[in-house]
Design a protein that fits this description.
- The chain is of the alpha/beta class and 367 residues long.
- It has two domains: 241 residues, tm_1862 like domain (pyruvate-formate lyase- activating enzyme, Alpha-Beta Horseshoe), CATH 3.80.30.20; 56 residues, no CATH class.
- A nine-stranded mixed beta sheet has the order 7-8-6-5-4-3-2-1-9, with helices on both faces. Strands 10-11-12 form a three-stranded antiparallel beta sheet, with no helix packed on it.
- α1 crosses α9, α2 runs parallel beside α3 and α6 runs parallel beside α7.
- The radius of gyration is 21 Å and the shape is globular.
- The C terminus is likely disordered.
Length: 367
């Protein structure tokens, strides 16, 4: 895992999309493109105010939404406002359909170092079932452009468990992705989120056993090309792990910029108003965009830290789990005295997490 001293991140939420995927519950909109310029200007102002007492960023992540829909020069203008360490990782999420040579040229010149492409599937009927609109051929084109413009690190996102996706379909997606020789792949099990079209259509809900088979297949194929798992849903070649995501998994500190963005500093978490209109209005009127906050007490924070670490290759101290026979096939203890999930354990990670030993005190306080 990419441990960093004095790690600090920025997450910038870009909530604009050309269309909305059926499984998506994020704060995104398809009818707000007229706000893009004002919104990104508000993000820059927010950064300039927030950065005054913040460390230099070791990682920056533009997520959404579809950040690559925004004019590239406006996005890198936001990036320019962020004080960064010389070797900072800067990631932008992109839809393969919106990638152009001009986009990547502007990103590279502006300091972007890493691209994350939303692939989801390389099978058209599976994409359609997910409510995705991109052409699988554009994935190949986007990866070629990323390499042409010197993005040594890039990620391909895939999702398994969509309606009508056979194991053969999933194998085709995996093999097509691996033919592109990616340094990083994120493979997520499709989840049903309340309020989405997927949630309203029980016939399209994923099957647990089917998803387990697909996870095992992904694990097998990734290993053959040197992609090592370092978090339940993430695999990378050595040196290409996502430093920014590790901030979240290690309870690191980061600022959240934009509507619905979350932040964490000094043990306090807070989140911004959900809509772009309210966020713009708050910033333009010199008000805080914060919508709410919480502060976990020491015991709750410790337990959460164990739950997050359990999902990663770092694992947890052996003392954090009981020495029970029913965990024998789910975890393994290394010479360093840390317990890590086996492949079967990753399939049952939530159940294993329930066995973590609680700190001596419990509870949380909300501010």
């Amino acid at each position: 895992m990419p441990h960093q001293l004095n790690a600090f991140g920025y997450y910038i939420h870009v909530p604009f999309c050309a269309s909305r995927c059926d499984y998506c519950a994020f704060a995104t909109w398809t009818d707000r493109t007229h706000l893009v310029e004002r919104y990104l200007r508000a993000c820059r102002i927010d950064i300039e105010r927030s950065a005054a007492d913040a460390p230099a960023a070791t990682s920056v992540f533009f997520g959404g939404g579809t950040p690559s829909l925004a004019p590239a020069e406006l996005l890198v203008d936001v990036l320019a406002a962020i004080p960064r360490a010389p070797d900072a990782e800067v990631t932008v999420e992109c839809n393969p359909d919106t990638v152009t040579p001009e986009l990547f040229e502007t990103y590279r010149a502006g300091g972007v170092t890493r691209i994350s492409l939303g692939v989801q599937s390389m099978v058209p009927h599976v994409l359609s079932a997910l409510g995705r609109t991109h052409d699988p051929q554009n994935v190949t084109r986007a990866v070629a452009l990323a390499r042409d413009f010197g993005f040594a690190s890039f990620n391909l996102d895939v999702i398994y468990g969509g309606a009508g996706e056979s194991l053969t379909d999933w194998r085709h997606t995996l093999e097509s992705v691996l033919e592109l020789d990616p340094p990083h792949v994120s493979a997520y099990a499709l989840t049903v989120e309340a309020g989405t079209p997927l949630a309203d259509d029980a016939a399209r809900h994923p099957d647990d056993d089917d998803q387990a088979d697909k996870y095992l297949l992904a694990t097998e194929l990734f290993a053959t090309v040197g992609l090592d798992w370092y978090e339940i849903s993430n695999w990378a070649k050595p040196g290409h792990e996502c430093r920014h995501n590790f901030l979240y998994w290690s309870q690191g500190e980061y600022l959240g910029i934009g509507c619905a963005a979350h932040a964490h500093r000094d043990g306090r978490r807070w989140w911004n108003v959900r809509t772009p209109e309210r966020y713009i209005e708050a910033i333009e009127h010199d008000r805080s965009p914060e919508a709410g906050s919480e502060r976990l007490d020491a015991a709750a924070s410790e337990l959460e830290g164990l739950q997050l670490a359990l999902r990663t290759i770092d694992g947890v101290p052996a003392s954090a789990l009981p020495d029970d026979d029913d965990l024998a096939e789910l975890v393994t203890i290394g010479r360093d005295g840390r317990t890590r999930l086996t492949v079967n354990g990753r399939l049952l990670a939530n159940e294993v997490a329930l066995r973590l030993r609680h700190p001596t005190t419990t509870g949380s306080s909300i501010s």
